[in-house]
Amino acid sequence: MSLTLNDYLVISTIIFIIGMIGVIRRKNLIMLFFATEIMLNAVNIGLVAISKFHGDLTGQMFAFFIIAIAASEVAVGLGLLILWHKRNNTINLDSLQSMKG
Question: What's the sign of the alpha-carbon dihedral 87, 92, 96, 98?
């Protein structure tokens, strides 16, 4: 039994929906970063599967770019998160509502 393109796309869609639910429901910034990473990895699965199905490397190249963007997003985001935690002693999203200039 071999997996078809449809199987990979269904798995990618399910993982993306799990990440989207995580983005919508989370109040903790670290969990929000994790949910965003799950969504980006779901897109990577879809791109690589379509690329393999068509015999073209374009989707795999886009997946590498997405991985690079995700790594930079985590680096900048965690730096800002550490700064926010030092100032407010919380990483709850509700505390972002009271930002001061």
Answer: negative
